[in-house]
């Protein structure tokens, strides 16, 4: 799944460079028309500062969280941004050096300490960071910014000011949680997080109730629904997100592994956390299904060949099957490719790195749900018409297991756009349900360089792409009284490395994928990760 090879990829180093914050709202210049029915704010998160003093972060994920707000009212847009005043940010700023270690950067011992103190500091565990730079998430009506450690920050969605640092481990026995929770229609949130106990690591399914009990309440009432033991408790899998259908949480145990011994001893060896994360292509991928009502894991094990996934598209149940749609790569080394120095490369070195990376492609796995001792072995159980995915039942030591092969949710022509990542759907109405459209970024570079709308019925897609413009993850907003699945707009923040302060918010008609309007904002924004639309309608 490498796709076509490319030469002379443009340098994008300005997209991974530090910028200033814009804490007071500034107006934008609107070209075209922004529909007046849009009321609310696009909130986005991502790294915005890559050095303190003369010390630089090594990994893209390490940069200090910079939050953005595009407020849309009456066809006009106001913009503001603010660095998250995390403990990491404040400590680093006070000393003008990197004090707190991040995923790919080990903080050096304090030069003000004597030799013996510096020596002893190598025996300390790396403390988790509260630099919550990955996403905006919502629990019980409150907005938080989140990364994948145990710390989140509750923020004011209007001013972007941090209101409270919140520690998952004070509420439930987990050492972190993903930045990609799922939600039931009533607002109940589901998430996943690891715990590290005397008996090794466990994967945990978390449920957070939808209602607050009082003004001080944040994660009260959160419960661990289910704990799953990894295949190897000293080397659990890394995961960025998970799938959810109406009745099941789907955990994808992929062969991107975390060597806990290497991570625990990292400081002693002078190595950062990412040095303990590795890809093992000789291991299978295992799908775990957990019943959301009972918290029980289904006894059947579902297996596929080694793959890596960061984001799921959707999951739904129909006619005794669970369809799991996600963006997958056949190689899981990408997480260690996103070093800042790699993203800032140019010329042949940049081309070579991009051309050796596996492309993320949308695929569907079909998981039969009604498996018993009567289920026939060694034949394809997927009876869905027009589906080429397979599921074959086998027994091993009296345990039923299914071997899965996916089907492609795209035609061959998607590879010409570098595959697809940062998938989005009409979540409010179609998550956990059969659906027709998904949206995402095409990746003909190390970051997204096009916007794509895919029609699952025809496997045909529409594209928005312009030279030297790099769009963020598309966010779908349904129009008032929407009847069709794609009645609405797509919002994406567009940045460019070739012109200073030339950012704009793009608004596309989700049905035609034609541009309706753009709001130009005279600031520089680095390439970010994720965001949400906070409706004020």
UniProtKB/TrEMBL annotation:
Per the record, its GO cellular-component terms are: mitochondrion
Q: Where in the cell is it found?
A: Mitochondrion
Name the record gives this protein: Carotenoid-cleaving dioxygenase, mitochondrial
Q: Which GO terms describe its biological process?
A: carotene catabolic process; retinal metabolic process
From the broadest rank down, the organism's phylogenetic lineage runs: Eukaryota, Metazoa, Chordata, Craniata, Vertebrata
Record-stated family = Belongs to the carotenoid oxygenase family.
According to its UniProt entry, the function of this protein is described as: Broad specificity mitochondrial dioxygenase that mediates the asymmetric oxidative cleavage of carotenoids. Cleaves carotenes (pure hydrocarbon carotenoids) such as all-trans-beta-carotene and lycopene as well as xanthophylls (oxygenated carotenoids) such as zeaxanthin, lutein and beta-cryptoxanthin at both the 9,10 and the 9',10' carbon-carbon double bond. Through its function in carotenoids metabolism regulates oxidative stress and the production of important signaling molecules.
Q: Which organism is it from?
A: Sinocyclocheilus grahami
Give the EC number(s) under which this enzyme is classified. Answer: 1.13.11.71
Keywords, A to Z, come to: Dioxygenase, Iron, Lipid metabolism, Metal-binding, Mitochondrion, Oxidoreductase
């Amino acid at each position: 799944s490498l796709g076509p090879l490319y030469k002379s990829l443009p340098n994008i180093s300005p997209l991974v460079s530090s910028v200033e914050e814009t804490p007071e709202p500034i107006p934008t210049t609107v070209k075209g028309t922004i529909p007046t029915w849009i009321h609310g704010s696009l909130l986005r998160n991502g790294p915005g500062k890559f050095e303190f003093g003369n010390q630089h972060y090594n990994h893209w994920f390490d940069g200090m969280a910079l939050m953005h707000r595009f407020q849309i009212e009456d066809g006009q847009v106001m913009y503001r941004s603010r660095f998250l005043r995390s403990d990491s940010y404040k400590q680093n700023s006070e000393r003008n050096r990197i004090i707190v270690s991040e995923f790919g950067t080990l903080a050096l011992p304090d030069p003000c300490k004597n030799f013996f103190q510096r020596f002893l500091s190598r025996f300390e565990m790396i403390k988790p960071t509260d630099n919550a730079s990955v996403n905006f998430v919502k629990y019980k009506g409150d907005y938080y910014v989140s990364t994948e450690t145990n710390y989140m920050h509750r923020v004011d969605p209007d001013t972007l000011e941090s209101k409270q640092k919140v520690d998952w481990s004070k509420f439930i026995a987990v050492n972190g949680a993903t930045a990609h929770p799922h939600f039931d229609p009533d607002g109940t949130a589901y998430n996943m997080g690891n715990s590290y106990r005397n008996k090794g690591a466990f994967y945990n399914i978390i449920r957070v109730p939808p209602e607050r009990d009082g003004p001080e309440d944040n994660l009260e009432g959160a419960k661990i629904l289910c704990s799953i033991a990894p295949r190897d408790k000293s080397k659990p899998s890394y995961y960025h997100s998970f799938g959810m259908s109406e009745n099941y949480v789907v955990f994808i145990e992929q062969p991107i592994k975390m060597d806990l011994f290497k991570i625990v001893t990292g400081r002693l060896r002078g190595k950062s956390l990412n040095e303990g994360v590795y890809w093992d292509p000789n291991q299978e991928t295992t799908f775990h299904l957990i019943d959301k009502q009972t918290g029980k894991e289904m006894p059947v094990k579902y297996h596929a060949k080694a793959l890596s996934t960061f984001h799921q598209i959707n999951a739904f149940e129909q006619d005794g099957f669970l369809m799991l749609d996600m963006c997958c790569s056949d190689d899981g080394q990408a997480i260690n490719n996103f070093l800042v120095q790699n993203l800032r490369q140019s010329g042949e070195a940049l081309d070579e790195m991009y051309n050796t990376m596996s492309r993320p492609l949308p695929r569907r796995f079909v998981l039969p749900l009604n498996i018993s001792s009567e289920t026939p072995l060694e034949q394809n159980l997927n009876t869905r018409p027009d589906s080429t995915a397979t599921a074959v039942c086998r027994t091993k030591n009296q345990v039923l297991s299914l071997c899965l092969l996916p089907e492609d949710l795209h035609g061959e022509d998607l590879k010409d756009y570098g595959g697809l990542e940062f998938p989005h759907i009409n979540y409010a109405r179609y998550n956990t349900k059969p659906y027709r459209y998904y949206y995402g970024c095409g990746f003909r570079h190390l970051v997204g360089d096009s916007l794509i709308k895919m029609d699952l019925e025809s496997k045909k897609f529409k594209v928005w792409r312009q030279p030297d413009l790099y769009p963020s993850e598309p966010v779908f907003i349904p129009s008032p009284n929407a009847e069709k699945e794609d009645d609405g707009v797509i919002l994406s923040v567009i940045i460019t490395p070739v012109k200073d302060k030339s950012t704009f918010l793009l608004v596309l008609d989700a049905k035609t994928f034609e541009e309706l309007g753009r709001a130009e904002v005279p600031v520089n924004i680095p390439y970010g990760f994720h965001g949400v639309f906070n409706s004020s309608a």
